[in-house]
Amino acid sequence: MPFSQQSIDFLFENRLHDSKSWFTEHKADYDSLVKQPMAQLVLDLAPTMMKIDKYIICDPKKISRIYRDARMHPDSIFRDHIWYSFGRPRDARNPAPEFYFSIGSGGMSFGCGYYCARPAVMQAVRELILSDDDSFKAAFLAVKKQKSFQLFGEPYKRNRYPDQPPEKCDWLNRRGLGLSSELTDPEIMFTDKLAKHIAREFKKIAPVYDLYMKAELLAAQAE
Q1: How far apart are CA 64 and CA 35, in angstroms?
Q2: What does the pLDDT look like over 85-122, one tens digit per residue?
Q3: What is the pTM of this model?
Q4: Which pairing describes strands 98-104 and 107-113: parallel, antiparallel, or unpaired?
């Protein structure tokens, strides 16, 4: 069963109520409208993800919780979205790059990047960019050829690389770096086309993931 407009409506209404009792009463709706379609999407994308990196985990049991962390959000109970991160086994001290897919009250988004990249890894990424490494050339070309994704990452207030061309500065002058795309077409969002669409888009930006993984290796060697 694919996602539907009801999936998004449920996430909005559940966050609006923000009530454990309301969620418990409607948990069957959450399972059928949100959790089960997400689990199926993870399984459908698994063959593509493992071609990109055989160590990426595709396990529906690792879908994000809809409950917020009460320690960080004492005034609210539920998120308005859930997501799945396609990446290697997690290490809280050394987070790895990930592909992700998210569905929430505002719609669907997907992309590739870090939740919080280590400074040493970002420095390694910049060194690969500045040296015109083949991994950066492939990543840059992959981003340039596609139209779905936008670069994201908090920019520095000033240009730290004024001697570099603008297209490189867009990559260099960010504290973190990733790609994100919003999905708005219901003919894709709410049909069996979704997994194939996401798989195609992820394959397009796989060179960006490869750039991150090379930076991970260089950072580990330096440490």
Answers
A1: 10
A2: 999 987 766 778 999 999 999 999 999 998 888 899 99
A3: 0.93
A4: antiparallel
pLDDT at 75 over 80: no
Question: For residue range 204-219, what is the model confidence (pLDDT) as tens digits?
Answer: 999 999 999 999 999 9
Please report the pLDDT score of residue 24 as a whole number.
96
3 state SS for the chain = CCCCHHHHHHHHHHHHHCCHHHHHHCHHHHHHHHHHHHHHHHHHHHHHHHHHCCCCCCCHHHCCCCECCCCCCCCCCECCEEEEEEECCCCCCCCCCEEEEEEECCEEEEEEECCCCCHHHHHHHHHHHHCCCHHHHHHHHHHHHCCCCEEECCECCCCCCCCCCHHHHHHHCECCCEEEEEECCHHHHCCCHHHHHHHHHHHHCHHHHHHHHHHHHHHHHHC
Give the Cα separation of 55 and 46 in Å (integer).
Answer: 11
Residue 58 has a pLDDT of: 97
What pLDDT, on a 0 to 100 scale, did the predictor assign at position 73? Answer: 64
Q: Are strands 150-152 and 107-113 parallel, antiparallel or unpaired?
A: unpaired
Q: Is 132 left (phi over 0), alpha (psi -120 to 50) or beta?
A: left
State the burial class of residue 4 (Cβ atoms within 10 Å of its Cβ: 0-12, 13-18, 19+).
middle
